[in-house]
Amino acid sequence: MLNYEFIPLSENALIIKFGDQINYDIHRRVRQFINYFTDHHIEGIIEVVPAYTTVTVYYDPIQFVKNLNRKSHIEVLPFERICTVLKNILSSLESVNISHGNEVVIPVCYGGEFGPDLEFVAHHNGLTPEDVIQIHSGAEYLVYMIGFAPGFPYLGGMPEQIATPRRSSPRLKIPAGSVGIAGMQTGVYPIETPGGWQLIGRTPLPLFVPENNPPTLLQAGDRIRFRAISRQEYDEWKERGSCG
């Protein structure tokens, strides 16, 4: 049985909450709902935005104006009307197929100037830096969603042994390609941006290229692994990239 809850957000938006836990079953429901709109256009629905356990639906309330039920003389508000429409969609989710996503290997040069917080992450968890690298690069991760910055992947699957709180003081500039940890999450900064994640390494692989279609390397549903590389390999990778 599909469990969900409608939560009003504003006069033109609501949240569909599928649960409280970050797991694959809820992720599958979120993706099925999003994928439904790939093949179906619903007049009045402007945008659907996925997150770990929710989808935010933006709609045009003018398209869902009050309708008078002649039999019961009950006015139907836009929110009530769109909830009815969404319930019909949600009842058909089992028929919506989702792909398994791509498998992507992301090379990472850990530590040093690229991973200034690697020592802290290791100390916080009673490990050595080498342990952190082995654990981080030994797991498989699922891309739950893309957000925060263009191409930024929110990943599930990071081992609890290396979970570390965010920095108490965020950095004003984090270089593109930086790999970080925040709590039970790990991710890669695709562009230079402020941020408070603990930086443990950097990848030479571009995750966001505006002129590409799609511009983001990763998509929700992709499975990724990190592969440790040396500083020399990192420089050679960057050199190849700069040469086209």
Question: Please, could you describe this protein's structure?
Answer:
By secondary structure, this protein is an alpha+beta fold. The chain has 5 helices and 15 strands. It has helices at residues 24-39, 78-90, 118-124, 129-138, 231-242; strands at residues 5-10, 13-17, 45-50, 54-59, 67-68, 75-76, 103-110, 141-146, 153-156, 171-174, 178-182, 185-188, 193-195, 198-202, 223-228. The chain has a 7-stranded mixed beta sheet. Strands 1-2-4-3 form a 4-stranded antiparallel beta sheet, with helices on one face. Strands 5-6 form a two-stranded antiparallel ribbon. The longest helix has 16 residues, at 24-39. The N and C termini lie far apart (51 Å). 28% of the residues are buried.
The arrangement of helices and strands along the chain is EEHEEEEHEHHEEEEEEEEH
Which quaternary structure do these chains form? Answer: single chain
How would the global form be characterised? elongated
What is Rg?
Answer: 21 Å
> Which stretches are poorly predicted, pLDDT < 50 over at least 5 residues?
66-74
What is the structural class? alpha+beta
- Percentage of residues assigned to helices: 10-25%
Count of individual helical segments: 5
Q: What distance lies between the first and last C-alpha atoms, to the nearest angstrom?
A: 51 Å
* Total number of strands: 15
Overall mean pLDDT stands at 89
Could you tell me the strand content as a percent range?
Answer: 25-35%
The main pleated sheet reads as: 7 strands, mixed
